EVE domain-containing protein
Amino acid sequence: MRRNLKKELVRSDGRRSYWLLKTEPAEWSWDDQLRSDGGVSRWDGVRNRQAQKNLKSMKCGDLCFFYHSGRERRVIGVVEVVRTWYSTTDDRGDDWEGAVDVRTVAEMRRAVDLRDIRAEAEVMKDFALIRQPRLSVVPVPERVWDRICEMGGGFGGEDDEGEDKKEVLSG
């Protein structure tokens, strides 16, 4: 029996959803993100229609794991959506591409490798990173978010109880 995973994408308090954004470190790394203007960068170049649909579903305040793909294959940090989907124009003038803007929240205390994520088979069984490994933008169910944060020792934007610090997430 398939569960309705859409319900799991919104926290129980209804405030935000969680996502994972993949990037090749040679193209855009965590260090590049940290050096970006005020920690804010445009997340663009997503061509896959399903991944674009996921970008279009993002809301301001949603949190995203920043994931290095390629050889590293690990969750490095957390970013926050600060501008929802907007259209961009490609070289031909077609208006089918778009982007969201994300702001650096914090680095994971310990990077979480893909092999460790896969080892958590029961919790991760419905996680799109495992089921659809080629998608560059995937939703993260709350229970998966919580487990990956636990595996990584949390991130710098959390207090001791694991709750997001208000000053880190406010504009």
In short: Residues 1-12, 164-171 have pLDDT under 50 and may be disordered. The two ends are 41 Å apart (CA to CA). The chain has seven helices and six strands.
